[in-house]
Amino acid sequence: MTVFLSNPDGHVEVPIYHHVAVAIGTRQIHIAGQVSWDENGDLVAPGDLAGQVAQVYRNVAKALHSAGATFHDVVRITWYAAGWKKEMYDDFIAGTRQAAREFDLPMPPVAGKPTLLGRVRPSRRPSVIECRRDPRVHGFGAQRRAGS
C-alpha cells in the first residue's frame, strides 16, 4: 500500500505538515482506542503524560504488527486527552519523541497534524491519554511514499 502526502497548489505550506493524504490499497485496518495499559491491564506511568503517550505508542505498535502494518501505514491519528490543558503539550511531545526513539516513526507521525481532542471531564479510566489510528495497507510489508 502506498500513502501519498501532498500540499495543494496555492495552499499554505507548513513545515512537517501535509494537507492531503491519499491511501491507495485494498485493505483497511481499524485499531480500537489504545490507552497506557501493559499486557496485564495495569496502568503504565500513572500521573506521567509523557510515559503514558509512549506506552500508547507501544500498544499501537503491537496492534499494527499483528495486522502486518507499521507506523508508516498510518494515515490518521486521533488523540483524546482527559482534562487537557495547553501546558500539557510539552509532555505530550516528549512522549512522542520517546516513541520515535523506540520505533521507526515518520516525523511528523502522519499527514497533517494529529488531532488532539481534550475531554472536559476525565474518563472513568485512570489513564490521561487515548488514541485511535487509521492505517491503510495492501498486503504485508506495505510501503509509504511522501509526496511534496
Could you give the topology of this structure?
Layout: E1 2-6, E2 20-24, E3 27-28, E4 31-34, H1 49-66, E5 74-82, H2 89-102, E6 115-119, E7 129-137
Parallel strand pairs: 5-6
Antiparallel strand pairs: 1-2, 3-7, 4-7, 5-7
Helix pairs in contact: 1-2
Overall shape: it is globular
Number of helices: 2
In terms of quaternary structure, the protein is: single chain
Mean pLDDT: 77
H-E order: EEEEHEHEE
> So what's the CATH class?
Alpha Beta
Helix content: 10-25%
Number of domains: 1
Question: What is the architecture at the second tier of CATH?
Answer: 2-Layer Sandwich
Largest sheet: 5 strands, mixed
CATH superfamily: RutC-like
Radius of gyration: 15 Å
Could you describe the 3D structure shown?
The chain is α+β, with helices and mostly antiparallel strands and 148 residues long. It has one domain: RutC-like (60s Ribosomal Protein L30, Chain: A, 2-Layer Sandwich). The chain is 22% helix and 26% strand. It contains two helices and seven strands; from the N terminus they run E-E-E-E-H-E-H-E-E. Strands 3, 4, 5, 6 and 7 form a five-stranded mixed beta sheet that branches. The protein has a two-stranded antiparallel sheet with strand order 1-2. Strand 5, helix 2 (89-102) and strand 6 form a beta-alpha-beta unit. Helix 1 (49-66) packs across helix 2 (89-102). It is globular. The two termini are 18 Å apart.
